[in-house]
């Protein structure tokens, strides 16, 4: 699969603001790229522009060396000539066609010989575990089976690129888990290039080789899932990834935590007056007895336990730190009680610092 390049791409539907703004993004051969962000961030619009279902307003899109959309040069390649496979949230299966005929549909359009079509349909339905249902109609299938039919139909035509627009959102939690594993297997087995749209961070973290986080039409950060999780470039990205979400402590003059935060940051950040907030993920907080940890060596947030919530394999502990709620996740059992005074302790490497413009600040971790 050639590299896909979006160069300063913009999309405007006639309003004052762009749905997608100045998007520069490269999707490499073999990538499983997840476009991640909240509803309305521009991720579906981006996929539709790559597919050719939307004309871009400005910029250019290239697939390899071939320009497929560039308004300034009056260049536009039709969707059916881009060799792209699409799966949408609603699967778009033909209700009057059997499973086998749905999988065969794209092959018929390409006028492949019947013997080759029959072989491809048999191979795809077998690989995706839907061969026993090949004579059934979509209404006779479960959501997960319909998903497999949509994938088989797409894979049968050997597309250069697979575009998946929230294809798992209609499935229950168990089926979603199964289909995530199925998509990872398909990506590895077919050596496909995949662009996957989702607002579900767990789908992005578990499926992607690279993640592109978007917000309000603007690309925020691109990187591997763990790079983005461990080193978010700004507060939006930090807050969007993580369950429970990252805790933030505001660095206002009136903040009751300011003294302990300043004690920790004093020799690690050159300009304390430029700091707007700090963030710590719940799993990075260690719960210690009150007053037992040095604030110069670790970040220490004195708090009081408000509730202890079991979640099966771990516990989520809600604490009051001044007027703020701070959450920690722990494997401790039985030793934590509502009303206990505790210290929430974090090592330097797990503390994220953001300036007043909510951009990440480098911290000396020594």
Question: Can you describe what's shown?
Answer:
With 366 residues, this protein is α+β, with helices and mostly antiparallel strands. It is built from nine helices and 20 strands. The chain has helices at 43-51, 99-109, 114-127, 143-156, 173-190, 201-207, 225-230, 235-240, 258-265, and strands spanning 4-11, 20-27, 32-36, 58-63, 66-70, 75-76, 84-87, 161-165, 193-198, 210-215, 218-223, 247-250, 275-280, 286-289, 299-310, 315-321, 324-330, 341-346, 351-355, 360-361. It starts with a strand and ends in a 5-residue tail after the last strand. Pfam families: ABC_tran, TOBE_2. One of its GO terms (molecular function) is ATP hydrolysis activity.
